[in-house]
């Protein structure tokens, strides 16, 4: 996955922080193979202005205020935003730790403009890592369709062969903007979908969280503070003793793609307003029939269907322990 001309893989993380977003950002920052060029923000777990404030604060916690943040979409491309999920991530999106205001400020260009500028300035070198709704990426494609030839995408979102989490049908990031997701999954770039098919197999247990609580880095301490609320939500919902690290799993794909099993399928998103809205539908390409019209002429997406979950967790803990 690393471009031959660069020693580090350059990434832009598009995020709606979010407790698991914070963990994913920290994992990327703790990974010497990756260079984080910027964070772009989007509505999702929280409203976009709070997403931007949180992104700035997270970079300050991590000691990386030099990394730019670009404020992004406040609403999906087709319909109004459904609203935040304080019952999952807290009123502040960060487990109700209520951090002091960030010192830094976002750039004076939009998230979509930042993505286009960076990709066109460094063609072939950047991987976009969206871990929220795909609105900014769709808007960037609208501004400059050629980015699809010059960037890769590894996204957290979707559910190919399993139920959803935001609804019985759909995963939250895709559910939040199905129209944008259908554009992004059909744009023809090198794109990998890291969805619930795998993130529901990557569980950081209470014992793992206790291990983080014993670490003495700023990022580990902060993680321990914010994760309790998110962990308790998961316990109340399903009785699990731990958390799904959805967004970190997309970053883990960049670091250890061999830990994942993938299939290549064209994927459509249900953009109707019925029960299935936001469901990602792969056409599994059965030998006995051609792709049906909605999937015809759609490029293949690399869809993660299996993962060595314990290996991903172990790697994440190792990275987090490094000071
Ligand atoms: O479905 C999981 C996704 O929804 C993650 O990105 C999480 O942060 C929430 O936005
Ligand atoms: Ca997220």
Percentage of helical residues? 25-40%
Q: What's the total helix number? A: 13
Sheet with most strands: strand arrangement:
3-2-1-4-5-6-11-9-10
Helix/strand class: alpha/beta
Per DSSP E runs of 2 or more residues, the count of β-strands stands at: 11
- Average pLDDT figure: 96
Strand content: 15-25%
Radius of gyration: 18 Å
- Gross morphology is globular
Query: Low-confidence parts lasting 5 or more residues at pLDDT below 50?
Result: none
Order of helices and strands: EHEHEHHEHHEHHEHEHHEHEEEH
Ligands, ions, cofactors: alpha-D-ribofuranose, calcium ion
Main pleated-sheet profile: 9 strands, mixed
How many angstroms does the end-to-end distance come to? 25 Å
Question: How would you characterize the overall build of this protein?
Answer:
With 323 residues, the protein is α/β, with parallel strands linked by helices. It is built from 13 helices and eleven strands. The chain has helices at 19-29, 48-61, 86-89, 111-121, 135-143, 147-150, 172-175, 178-185, 196-199, 206-213, 218-238, 246-255, 309-321; strands at residues 9-15, 34-41, 69-70, 126-130, 151-156, 190-194, 203-205, 242-244, 260-269, 280-282, 300-307. The strands form two sheets. The chain has a nine-stranded mixed beta sheet with strand order 3-2-1-4-5-6-11-9-10, sandwiched between helices. Strand 1, helix 1 and strand 2 form a beta-alpha-beta unit. The protein is globular and about 55 Å long.
Tell me briefly what this model is.
This protein has 323 residues and is an alpha/beta fold. The chain is built from 13 helices and 11 strands.
């Amino acid at each position: 996955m690393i471009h031959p001309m660069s020693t580090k893989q350059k990434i832009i993380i598009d995020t709606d922080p979010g407790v698991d977003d914070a963990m994913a950002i920290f994992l990327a920052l703790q990974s010497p193979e990756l260079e984080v060029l910027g964070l772009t923000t989007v509505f999702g777990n929280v409203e976009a202005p709070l997403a931007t404030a949180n992104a700035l604060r997270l970079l300050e916690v991590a000691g990386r205020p030099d990394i730019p943040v670009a404020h992004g979409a406040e609403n999906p491309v087709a319909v109004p935003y459904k609203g935040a999920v304080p019952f999952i991530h807290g009123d502040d999106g960060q487990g109700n730790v209520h951090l002091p205001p960030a010192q830094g400020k976002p750039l004076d260009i939009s998230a979509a403009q930042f993505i286009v500028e960076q990709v066109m300035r460094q063609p072939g070198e950047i991987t976009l890592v969206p871990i929220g709704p795909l609105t900014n990426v769709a808007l960037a494609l609208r501004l400059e369709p050629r980015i699809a030839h010059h960037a890769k995408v590894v996204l957290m979102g979707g559910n190919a062969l399993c139920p959803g989490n935001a609804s019985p049908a759909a995963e939250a990031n895709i559910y939040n903007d199905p129209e944008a997701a259908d554009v992004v999954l059909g744009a023809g770039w090198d794109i990998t979908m890291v969805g619930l098919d795998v993130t529901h197999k990557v569980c950081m247990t209470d014992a793992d969280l206790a291990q983080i609580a014993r670490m003495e880095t700023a990022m580990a301490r902060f993680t321990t503070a914010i994760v309790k609320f998110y962990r308790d939500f998961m316990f109340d919902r399903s009785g699990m003793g731990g958390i799904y690290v959805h967004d970190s799993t997309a970053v883990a794909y960049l670091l250890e793609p061999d830990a994942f099993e993938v299939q290549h399928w064209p994927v459509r998103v249900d953009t109707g307003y019925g029960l299935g809205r936001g469901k990602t539908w792969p056409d599994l390409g059965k030998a006995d029939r051609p792709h049906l019209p909605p999937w015809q002429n759609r490029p293949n997406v690399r869809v993660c269907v299996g993962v060595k979950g314990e290996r991903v967790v172990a790697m994440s803990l190792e990275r987090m322990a490094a000071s």
